[in-house]
Amino acid sequence: MDLLGIILWPLKWAVELLLVAFHWLFSNMGLGYNDGITWVLSIVGLVIVVRAALIPIFVRQIKSQRKMLEVAPQLKKIQDKYKGKKDQFSRESMSRETMELYKRTGTNPLSSCLPLLLQMPIFFALFSVLNDAQHLKAGVGPLDVDRAQSFGNASLFGQAPLSESFASQWTLMMAGNPYSVAVMVIAAVMVVLMTASQFITQLQIVSKNMSPETKASPMFKQQRIMLYLLPLVFAFSGVAFPLGVMFYWLTSNIWTMVQQFIVIRNMPTPGSEAAKAREERLARKGKLVAKDGDIIIVEEPKKPAQRQQPVGKNRSKKQPGPKK
């Protein structure tokens, strides 16, 4: 066993335990032992538990990223100050001023990446377990050969095996296999949903959770690139993912999208549109506290009452004159 395998072994064991536990739960609730929907719900339950356990790490990552966004304008000033200067003295001065900025503001460029690095082994373990099970391979723990074969042979609607992908079925469809169409249709819908959820998640950050100073910095350009790059990565790589793995990615993306929405709504970046919207909500409720301790209350302007037209008396109808 290599070093990566040794690191992932306890994580894979825990992942298999959760997957098997959810499969046992749904099977005893009346769902078929070998049905695709049973394993899909087990994957969804597995992702929810893992992502819920990672919430503290996610919050720490958000706080670290916010600090980096806050110091981005000051960092840009330092970079502009030494722009075009390539001598040794200028490089040392820029590095020294940058480190002083990080020390003064209590930020660290690596701190925002550390939580993400801690999550990577868990995601590798999730992917490895699902991928091995779809190839009928027993796991390192509770996922024995019988359950692995059940997972690998499970299918949705009796026609779309969870172990198959869009790419694997393309060749079969060209050869005239009618059952390949079901897998390709489901896989195509999954790819669209994965791409859309990833795009919405990035769009929330770029459009609502960045201050005007940050939008003028090089970091904003990088975020704009990621806004369109990551969905494209999902779109092109998704055609090669088996359906079981795609359900894992889609559930994880939806969790991230909802989690990001809650964080931006309640913990927005200072100066961003989301922060202004939050201040307005708190002010309307009388919960916004100013820096001097006073409570700020914003009263919504009352709509002017519509003036009621006076009701006149019915005029008597004119009597018709005598006919000539």
UniProtKB/TrEMBL annotation:
Supply the alphabetized keyword list: Cell membrane, Chaperone, Membrane, Protein transport, Transmembrane, Transmembrane helix, Transport
Taxonomically, the superkingdom here is: Bacteria
Predominantly, its location class is membrane
Coiled coil start-end: none
Q: Identify the residues that the record assigns to the Membrane insertase YidC/Oxa/ALB C-terminal domain, covering every copy.
A: 39-264
Per UniProt, subcellular location reads as: Cell membrane; Membrane
Q: Where is this region: Disordered?
A: 298-324
User: How is the quaternary structure described?
Assistant: Interacts with the Sec translocase complex via SecD. Specifically interacts with transmembrane segments of nascent integral membrane proteins during membrane integration.
| Identification of the protein by name | Membrane protein insertase YidC
